[in-house]
């Protein structure tokens, strides 16, 4: 297993501030050059020291490195449809926390998520999808909120996207590893929603357990 060397990095709050500032640059068209010097690449080849771990959706329109204007080696990114938590994802998060020691974990959902839309169709209309897709949706359905029947389909989807992010955050927090890390004050876990139309990332207020 790769272990990040003992270099003091940013705190969780400093890491979050970096993400917020990076998204601001992305929104304003001020993204930094993506070019890298050869010596930078050589340094990264020795070890990785990402300052944040991002669990995001696989949607091609939501690349964390772009929307946070992050450089190579800045983010440890995990992507899966619907930004769900599975044993494999949990193991990857544990690796990031225990070996890479990233101080900040972000569960990143996005507006208009197709996986969340499909999960809503399964829950409310009984629609069934291909077997492996249905298995993925089964991880989303339990976290979907209840809705007022007067809400528009668009508002229902938006609230479901946020509800799914909060559901995944709670699952991470409720894991033994998550509880231990937060209790030690070593790491912070937050949720966020990306708006595909505007490019803005909205970080969600923490609930009582975060």
Summing up helix and strand content along with how strands pair, one would put the structural category as: alpha/beta
CATH-defined fold name: Beta-carbonic Anhydrase, Chain A
Specify Rg, calculated over alpha carbons: 18 Å
CATH architecture title? 3-Layer(aba) Sandwich
What would your notes on this structure say?
The protein has 210 residues and is α/β, with parallel strands linked by helices. It has one domain (12-203): Beta-carbonic Anhydrase, Chain A (3-Layer(aba) Sandwich). 44% of the residues lie in helices and 13% in strands. The protein contains eight helices and five strands. The chain has a five-stranded mixed beta sheet with strand order 2-1-3-4-5, with helices on both faces. Strand 1, helix 3 (64-67) and strand 2 (75-79) form a beta-alpha-beta unit. The longest helix has 22 residues, at 153-174. The two termini are 29 Å apart.
Structural key phrases:
single chain, 210 residues, Beta-carbonic Anhydrase, Chain A, 8 helices, globular, 5-stranded mixed β-sheet, alpha/beta
């Amino acid at each position: 297993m790769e272990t990040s060397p003992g270099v003091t990095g940013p705190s969780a709050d400093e890491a979050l501030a970096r993400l917020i500032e990076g998204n601001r640059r992305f929104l304003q068209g001020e993204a930094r050059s993506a070019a890298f010097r050869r010596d930078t690449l050589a340094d990264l080849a020795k070890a990785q020291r990402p300052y944040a771990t991002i669990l995001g959706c696989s949607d091609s329109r939501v690349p964390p490195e772009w929307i946070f204007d992050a450089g190579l080696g800045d983010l440890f990114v995990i992507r899966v449809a619907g930004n769900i938590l599975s044993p494999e994802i949990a193991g990857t998060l544990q690796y990031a926390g225990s070996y890479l020691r990233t101080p900040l974990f972000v569960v990143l959902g996005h507006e208009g998520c197709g996986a969340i839309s499909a999960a809503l169709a399964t829950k409310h209309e009984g629609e069934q999808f291909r077997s492996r897709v249905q298995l993925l949706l089964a991880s989303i359905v339990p976290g979907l909120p209840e809705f007022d029947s007067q809400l528009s389909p668009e508002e229902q989807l938006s609230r479901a996207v946020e509800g799914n992010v909060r559901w995944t955050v709670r699952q991470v927090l409720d894991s033994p590893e998550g509880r231990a890390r937060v209790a030690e004050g070593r790491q912070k876990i937050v949720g966020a929603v990306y708006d595909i139309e505007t490019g803005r990332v909205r970080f969600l207020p923490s609930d009582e357990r975060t």
